[in-house]
C-alpha cells in the first residue's frame, strides 16, 4: 500500500507543478501586452525563467540542499539578470516584467498576484539574522527602480512608484512615491468615502487620474473631505432638532424667500438672502 500511495503523491505533486506553470504563463499574457504566443513566452521571458528556476531552488533549499539551491540561484541570475534568494517565499501568479536588476532577499515574502518591474530591490537594513526583508501582500505592484527595505509590510493592493525608497509600512490600497516614500493616495476606505460624496454631489473626482499626486486632484480631494465633514455635521444637527420635536425642512426643498433678490441691487447684500421651506 505504501508504494501506490507514494505514486499518487508524486502524481499530485507533478500535476500541481504543471498547473502552477500554466498560471505563470497565463499571468504573463494578462500583464504584458507584448506577449504573443506561449512558445515566445516560454523561450524569451526572463521573468518567467527566473520564477520557474526559483521554484526549483526554493524546494532544494527547504530539503536541506543549501549549496545546490544557492548555485542554481546563481545560474538563474547569470541567465536572467534576476537575483532571488532560494529562501524567499513567493506566492502564485507572480509577474516580473523585463527583470534585469531585480534583487529579492532571503526573508522576503511575496503574496499572490504581485508584479515587479526591473531594478526593484526587496532588501534588508541589518546584518543580523532573522526577518530582515519586506513582506508584500496580495496584488502589490512595484515600479521600476523602487527600493523596499527592511522587515516592513506592504499592504494588499498597494502601489509603489518608480524609484521610490520605502522604509516604512504601507497601508492596503495606498500608493507611495518619492524618496523617502510618501503615501500620496489614501487607503481604500477614505477613497471609497470620497467617491460616495462625489456621487452625491454629481461630480467624479477621478475622471482624469486616480493614483497620481496631481495638485488639482489633491485640492478636489480636500474639498470632498470638507463636504463629507459638513454633511456629517448637518445630519447631526437635523437629528438634534428632531430630538427636540422640531422637524427640519427637507434637504432638497429650500428656496429663496419670495420678494428677495439674489443680486446687490438697491444696496442689498447678496449674502443676506434668506431661505425658507417650501
Walkthrough of the structure:
This protein has helices spanning 2-31, 38-44, 46-62, 66-80, 188-200, 215-243; strands at 83-84, 89-90, 95-97, 103-104, 109-110, 115-117, 121-123, 135-136, 141-142, 147-149, 153-154, 159-160, 165-166, 175-177, 182-185, 254-256, 275-277. With 278 residues, it is an alpha/beta fold. It has three domains: 2-185, Hexapeptide repeat proteins (UDP N-Acetylglucosamine Acyltransferase, domain 1, 3 Solenoid); 191-244, no CATH class; 248-278, no CATH class. The strands form four sheets. Strands 3-6-9-12-14-15 form a six-stranded mixed sheet. Helix 3 packs antiparallel against helix 4. It is elongated, with a radius of gyration of 28 Å. The relative contact order is 0.06. Mean pLDDT is 78; it is low at 202-209 and 267-278.
Please render the helix and strand layout as text:
Elements: H1 2-31, H2 38-44, H3 46-62, H4 66-80, E1 83-84, E2 89-90, E3 95-97, E4 103-104, E5 109-110, E6 115-117, E7 121-123, E8 135-136, E9 141-142, E10 147-149, E11 153-154, E12 159-160, E13 165-166, E14 175-177, E15 182-185, H5 188-200, H6 215-243, E16 254-256, E17 275-277
Parallel strand pairs: 1-4, 2-5, 3-6, 4-7, 5-8, 6-9, 7-10, 8-11, 9-12, 10-13, 12-14
Antiparallel strand pairs: 14-15, 16-17
Amino acid at each position: 500500500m505504501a508504494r501506490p500511495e507514494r505514486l499518487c503523491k508524486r502524481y499530485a505533486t507533478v500535476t500541481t507543478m504543471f498547473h502552477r506553470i500554466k498560471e505563470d504563463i497565463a499571468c504573463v499574457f494578462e500583464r504584458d501586452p507584448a506577449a504573443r504566443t506561449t512558445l515566445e513566452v516560454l523561450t524569451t521571458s526572463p521573468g518567467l525563467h527566473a520564477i520557474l528556476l526559483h521554484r526549483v531552488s526554493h524546494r532544494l533549499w527547504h530539503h536541506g540542499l543549501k549549496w545546490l539551491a544557492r548555485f542554481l540561484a546563481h545560474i538563474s541570475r547569470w541567465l536572467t539578470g534576476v537575483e532571488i534568494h532560494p529562501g524567499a517565499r513567493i506566492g502564485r501568479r507572480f509577474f516580473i516584467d523585463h527583470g534585469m536588476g531585480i534583487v529579492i532577499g532571503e526573508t522576503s515574502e511575496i503574496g499572490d498576484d504581485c508584479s515587479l518591474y526591473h531594478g526593484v530591490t526587496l532588501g534588508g537594513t541589518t546584518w543580523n539574522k532573522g526577518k530582515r526583508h519586506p513582506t508584500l501582500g496580495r496584488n502589490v505592484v512595484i515600479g521600476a527602480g523602487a527600493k523596499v527595505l527592511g522587515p516592513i509590510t506592504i499592504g494588499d493592493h498597494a502601489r509603489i512608484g518608480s524609484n521610490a525608497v520605502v522604509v516604512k509600512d504601507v497601508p492596503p490600497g495606498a500608493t507611495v512615491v518619492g524618496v523617502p516614500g510618501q503615501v500620496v493616495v489614501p487607503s481604500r476606505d477614505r477613497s471609497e468615502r470620497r467617491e460616495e460624496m462625489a456621487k452625491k454631489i454629481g461630480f467624479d473626482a477621478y475622471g482624469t487620474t486616480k493614483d497620481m499626486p496631481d495638485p488639482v486632484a489633491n485640492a478636489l480631494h480636500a474639498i470632498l473631505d470638507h463636504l463629507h465633514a459638513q454633511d456629517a455635521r448637518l445630519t447631526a444637527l437635523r437629528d438634534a432638532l428632531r430630538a427636540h420635536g422640531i422637524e427640519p425642512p427637507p434637504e432638497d426643498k429650500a428656496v429663496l424667500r419670495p420678494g428677495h433678490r439674489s443680486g446687490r441691487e438697491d444696496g442689498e447684500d447678496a449674502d443676506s438672502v434668506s431661505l425658507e421651506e417650501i
